[in-house]
């Protein structure tokens, strides 16, 4: 008997997207292919398709966001869904209403999807365990655990620029310890089968036993960047750091900041990525962030197509009795 994960329905189709962990290569490729088909919607005169007409999507962001919140809203609107953004600071949670009571009230208004960002790891999983059977939950970033749609938009950006994953050497540089993006990227890149995946950071910013995820650890930036095809920079997540993990931002930039000179040891056609928000002069120099190898703003644009794909695949599933039974 097939073991069903929380994010799959009984037919093995994606019902929620909570984490990249547990997704098979074919399912990730399916999401990327679907996203690819939505890129053209953004280039049309009327940027809309009717796939989610009549569905209601609720953005529940308990933590700050620019890119994720906005691109989820645009994605839902381009799929013709109705979209609500709950302002957490003016919601009844400030009067003591619990998160689950709030959700059940929103369900009573016939909402179909919750897109959730929360500072606590596991928040989206908790919500997914309690929602009604017709409701889908998308994790838009939970604590330092996972940010699956960010990793998927990063994979789409890499695939559009580099083609196949198999020959690639990828370096993820920065605060690996506190980064939900890094965790999701590591699961995606290893599942898609890159040739070599390096994580590059000072010892204080590398989680214990990270090698067990299939990465090579480097504490020297030049070693980490050597002949890389893809360089992914991460910001220092100071809001999640407890105690002094670094001497100073200036010293961090001197050792791990990406400058044009440091980037020169990667392949000449290497692309530079960053999930944002970027901190110029802390992890990346402006000349690199705005330079010819940077694809940072392409990542943002690709986020709309990826989020359209994930929303249409989860919410747009045909009813169980008409669905083809798929291998899990
Ligand atoms: N990459 C990312 O999650 O950015 P936001 O925090 O602006 O959503």
Give structural notes.
This protein has 328 residues and is of the alpha/beta class. The protein is 35% helix and 13% strand. A five-stranded parallel sheet has the order 7-6-5-8-9. The chain has a four-stranded parallel sheet with strand order 2-1-3-4, with helices on both faces. β3, α4 and β4 (136-142) form a beta-alpha-beta unit. α1 (25-39) crosses α5 and α1 packs across α11. The longest helix is centred in the C-terminal third of the chain and has 20 residues, at 296-315. The radius of gyration is 20 Å and the shape is globular. The relative contact order is 0.17. Residues 322-328 have low confidence and may be disordered.
Major sheet: order of its strands? 7-6-5-8-9
Which structural category fits the helices and strands? alpha/beta
The proportion of residues in beta strands is: 5-15%
At the fourth level of CATH, the homologous superfamily of the largest domain is Aspartate/ornithine carbamoyltransferase
Q: Give the overall average pLDDT.
A: 93
Apparent shape = globular
Would you report the number of β strands?
Answer: 9
Q: What can be said about the biggest beta sheet?
A: 5 strands, parallel
Domain count, please report it. 2
Present as ligands are:
phosphoric acid mono(formamide)ester
Residue share in helices?
Answer: 25-40%
What radius of gyration results from the CA coordinates? 20 Å
As for the CATH topology of the largest domain, it is Rossmann fold
Point out poorly predicted stretches.
322-328
Helix-strand sequence: HEHEHEHEHEHEEHEHHEHH
CATH classification class of the largest domain = Alpha Beta
Distance between the termini: 10 Å
CATH architectural arrangement of the largest domain: 3-Layer(aba) Sandwich
Q: Give the count of helical stretches.
A: 11
